[in-house]
Amino acid sequence: MSALHQPRSVGHADEATHMRRDLPQRRRSETFEIAFGGFANKHFVTLGYYEDGSIGEVFIAFQKSGMQTEAIARDGAILLSLALQYGVPLHSIKSAITRDLKGEPMSIVGAVVDKLSASS
Prior knowledge:
Elements: E1 8-10, E2 18-20, E3 29-34, E4 43-49, E5 55-62, H1 67-85, H2 90-96, H3 108-118
Antiparallel strand pairs: 1-2, 3-4, 4-5
Helix pairs in contact: 2-3
């Protein structure tokens, strides 16, 4: 493994050391459409993969939406990506997602996590 792809430690001396796994510069990706919330607008998710096939980054884009809604989804995808890069298991993320009384995710990020969990 090259130095570029070595996990790196972060934190201060008084904090626990966590390792972040860097993604390769060139990586396989996949884009798919996802339905959420009954909106007529299309939502697109792009996944970036590590060489071993595990997911390392998530992008969420909207065909049409308000800027604030799209910004929240983008920020959620960044946080999801960072959690995956630091080794947080997808099932742990799924259990932390806000859900309605029927158990359905209340955000597009939650819908993405559910879809990824179902296919893993």
